[in-house]
Amino acid sequence: MDLSVEYLGHKLKNPIIVGSCGLTSSVSKLKSLEKAGAAAVVLKSLFEEQIDQEYWQEQSKNTFDFPDVANYINAYSNDKSFEKYLDLIKSAKENISIPVFASINCHSAGNWIDYAKKMEEAGADAIELNVSLLPNDFDATSADNEKFYFEITKKVKKAVSIPVALKMSSYSAGLAKLIKELSWTKNVDSFVLFNRYFRPDIDLDTLELKSGGLLSNSGDLAESLRWVLLLSKTVKTDIIGNTGIHTGKDVVKQILAGAKAVQVVSAIYINGEEHITGMLKEIEDWMESKKFNSLDDFRGTLHKKEELKKGFERIQFMKYYGSIE
Ligand SMILES: Cc1cc2nc3c(=O)[nH]c(=O)nc-3n(C[C@H](O)[C@H](O)[C@H](O)COP(=O)(O)O)c2cc1C
User: Fold this and answer.
1) Positive/negative CA dihedral, 240, 245, 251, 257
2) What superfamily in CATH does domain 5-321 come from?
3) H or E element: which one contains 129?
4) What pLDDT, in 10s, does the model give residues 266-277?
5) Interval 278-312: pLDDT, tens
6) Measured on CA atoms in the order 233, 132, 112, 124, is the torsion positive or negative?
7) In the predicted structure, residue 322 carries a pLDDT above the cut 90
8) 41, 224, 230, 236, 308 from 302: Cα distances, Å
9) Residue 254 in contact with ligand 1 by CB distance below 6 A
10) Which residue's CA is the nearest one to ligand 1's atom 14?
11) Which helix (H) or strand (E) segment is 307 a member of?
12) 266 CB less than 6 Å from ligand 1?
């Protein structure tokens, strides 16, 4: 049974990539993930502000005339997160043999972009950009918000020669057009659908902010599955399913919908890394039952099922809502 897949210029042994999270922040954890069967890893994200510290440190070397400024900048930027991140990339590449993708959490096309090159030099096999934008500015049109995706990916693609993946938010009034047009720019080598943002909740005793739950469940699969199915035939760039993928069967659904591969996080937090081994077995069992030998044998076959596709296009479904009293 061949589970391999070509993704971002690499041959992955199977379609399960471990997404960016705390589980991908140290070499010992990365080794366990590789041992359990992960085909690639996306390292825990570095925030653009952490990279900017490096930029300001460089600038401070030229501010000898203003020692106060230099001191301030050095004090602000002494946690060396960027250097530590480069060390993580280097040591991941030395210790595991699956592809290692660096991840940057960004919201502007600022100075940090030049430093993406250093991640490439440290050995990153690709860069995944997690563009975090909440469209809550009352004065910004959707075009204002969406222009950042174009600016950031254009500049990063120019700065590096490794592939660039874009982890998308589902917050866009014109999501299909946005992804289609981003795909045309050729500045994005893969779209990851979708990021799962911090979910705010309220503690009713203290009236303080609390987390509404970091981890997903299988019920959260629907949104990503819907968009993978709706976009993957028209958009020629690779699409990765992410969010709510908890079982091997969830992976199969994403491939049937047209995903190139998937990213998994919560299921590994909940069940441990050996869960990956079980998911792979489940994929193989399903393929065997259907007599498929490779993922290409069934990737995107749901596109031929017109009635099913129409169901994924509906957000009001009388058949399901109307019958419940
Ligand atoms: C504890 C935790 C930490 C995460 N940290 C990051 C991060 O640093 N960068 C990022 O792009 N996504 C991060 N994510 C989001 C995951 O990569 C993933 O997109 C999300 O959890 C949805 O996948 P899942 O349903 O398999 O959990 C994090 C998720 C969790 C649960």
Assistant:
1) negative
2) Aldolase class I (3.20.20.70)
3) strand 126-131
4) 999 999 999 999
5) 999 999 999 999 999 999 999 999 999 999 999 89
6) negative
7) no
8) 28, 15, 10, 16, 8
9) no
10) 21
11) helix 306-313
12) yes
